[in-house]
Design goal:
Layout lengths: L2 H10 L6 E2 L6 E2 L6 E6 L7 H10 L1 H12 L5 E7 L7 E3 L4 E5 H13 L5 H24 L7 H16 L4 H20 L12 H15 L15 H16 L6
Helix pairs in contact: 2-4, 3-5, 4-5, 5-6, 5-7, 6-7, 6-8, 7-8, 8-9
Length: 254
């Protein structure tokens, strides 16, 4: 029996509204109408290893559980883990869909491997969490109809939402944010001339923003981060936390 026919047979036996998800071995429950939901799509051949690792880590599942425990979205946002052919991870407001790209993992791993990191896969699992929180920030800007300004302002706001999610009283979140900062540092070193058309802040600026947030939220745990240039990080973090908490108040569960 061909792969296409096998898939058709399995799908025919699924309950109405159920989904056939790559690697699940059968039917999945129908997606809920609200909240962040995750599905894995079959990867391109070149992305198979990264797709399997992403499923094994369960970092995406963990991030979405935290998001759904914190906010009550009035609609569904689907997080689709898939091969993107270099298009890059991002949020599509028209479809209310976050695409989490398997092929991005290979690029991130190469940065850590070139830097001699002994645990590149562990670092990647942490970067996935930060990435998902960033994209969820875009989804929440959309859901709340916020007007942070131009595209760069929205990207900055999404970075700050990732900081809020990772620094909500969880020391492991501090480490995740510092790992993401290191990834941005490595990307900046690999490509020191940022694209002026990129709506994101330069990688080095994003790295520094994350370190400042960690220091501002937990100065006693990170005295090594304290420098004269970061003297205002406590005030910056307080503003970040209070602004997002205020904006999210219609959706907060707690």
């Amino acid at each position: 029996m061909t792969a296409v026919r096998r898939a058709a047979v399995v799908l025919a036996g699924c309950a109405a509204g159920a989904l056939l998800v790559w690697g699940a071995g059968g039917c999945e429950e129908a997606l809920p109408d609200r909240g962040f939901v995750l599905r894995y799509e079959r990867p391109a051949a070149a992305d198979g290893q990264d797709a399997r690792l992403l499923k094994a880590w369960k970092s995406a599942e963990s991030a979405l559980a935290d998001l759904n425990g914190y906010v009550a979205l009035p609609h569904r946002v689907t997080v689709a883990a898939r091969s993107c052919s270099g298009e890059g991870t991002g949020y599509d407001p028209a479809q209310r869909r976050i695409e989490l790209c398997y092929d991005d993992l290979a690029e991130e791993r190469a940065l850590f491997e070139r830097a001699g990191d002994p645990r590149p896969d562990e670092r990647l699992a942490e970067v996935v969490r930060e990435t998902l929180y960033h994209e969820a920030g875009h989804a929440l800007v959309d859901a709340l109809d916020l007007r942070p300004g131009d595209d760069r302002a929205e990207e900055d706001a999404a970075d700050r939402f990732a900081q809020v999610m990772l620094l909500r009283g969880r020391p492991d979140g501090e480490q995740v944010l510092l790992t993401a900062a290191r990834a941005y540092d490595l990307a900046a070193a690999a490509d020191p001339d940022p694209d002026p058309a990129d709506e994101h802040a330069p990688d080095a600026v994003r790295a520094e923003s994350h370190r400042c947030a960690v220091l501002g939220a937990a100065p006693t745990r990170h005295p090594d981060l304290a420098t004269p240039s970061r003297a205002g990080c406590t005030a910056t973090w307080t503003r970040t936390r209070d602004t997002w908490t205020g904006d999210l108040s219609p959706l907060l569960r707690r």
